[in-house]
Design brief:
Elements (H helix, E strand, L loop, with lengths): L3 H12 L11 H20 L7 H6 L2 E12 L1 E12 L10 E10 L2 E13 L2 H4 L9 H4 L2 E3 L19 E13 L2 E8 L1 H8 L5 H6 L10 H10 L3
Parallel strand pairs: 5-6
Antiparallel strand pairs: 1-2, 1-4, 2-3, 3-7, 4-6
Length: about 230
């Protein structure tokens, strides 16, 4: 039991959105995170079986691209990182802001898998949930699995008109079980400070021009602009 206590403390810290013993990430590491999120979106769109339909992307008010790994035995942890971008009122896309993401689950479970997910935010109110210090789209908005481009003609079910978040995911690996789950996202303030060399927070990063896009953001900003254009 004593050996379990440190693990439980770490899991509790993850559940609170405060990684135990975490330090500020290096800028090089954040560039790699940004590149991997760009690759997730490109891979999703390059495959006709997983691509997000053009009409959905044209109406999108925000995108959250998530890279996670899930694993455990009885006590499971899903942890990772994400970036968020929003379409501003002038139609231009924001710089990417860094997020922490995670989930802790209790129940009989075993295995591991990588989870690459793109969440399409369909209205401005949902995009502004990113301002909160801790948020869960599943609890604060209506989240549904999005119809993929390849399914458009043969899937009869319409998307709910009040859906705020459409989820598209590539899942690799094997994971079974899970009983009680609690998920979260939090702004990664340290990452944004290090990457952009600014003390501005998520609202300013996403909805103002106070922070100029570094060169490393050019590719993903150009790509998102391209795939969401009418």
């Amino acid at each position: 039991m004593k050996k379990l206590l440190p693990a439980l403390c770490c899991l509790a810290a993850l559940a609170a959105g405060l990684p135990a013993g975490a330090s500020s990430p290096s800028r090089d590491k954040l560039v790699r995170h940004l590149d991997s999120c760009e690759a997730i979106l490109q891979d999703l769109q390059a495959n006709s079986k997983t691509a997000i339909p053009a009409d959905i992307l044209q109406r999108a008010k925000g995108l959250v691209i998530i890279n996670q790994f899930q694993g455990g035995f009885f006590l499971g942890v899903k942890d990772g990182y994400a970036i968020a971008m929003v379409r501003r009122p002038n139609g231009k896309w924001s710089v990417p802001a860094f997020l922490n993401v995670g989930e802790i689950s209790f129940g009989l479970q075993a295995g591991g898998k990588s989870i690459n997910t793109v969440m399409v935010l369909m209205d401005d109110a949902t995009a502004r949930l990113l301002f909160k210090s801790r948020f869960n789209f599943g609890a604060e908005a209506k989240v549904v699995a999005g119809i993929r481009a390849a399914e458009g003609e043969r899937v009869n079910r319409p998307l709910p008109s009040d859906a705020n978040v459409l989820v598209y995911a590539n899942v690799e690996g094997y994971y079974v079980g899970a009983a009680l789950k609690t998920g979260y996202m939090t702004p990664h303030e340290d990452a944004n400070r290090v990457f952009y060399n600014t003390t501005n927070h998520i609202p300013e990063l996403l909805y103002s021009d106070w922070v100029q896009p570094p060169s490393e953001t050019k590719f993903i900003m150009d790509y998102v602009t391209k795939i969401t254009a009418p």
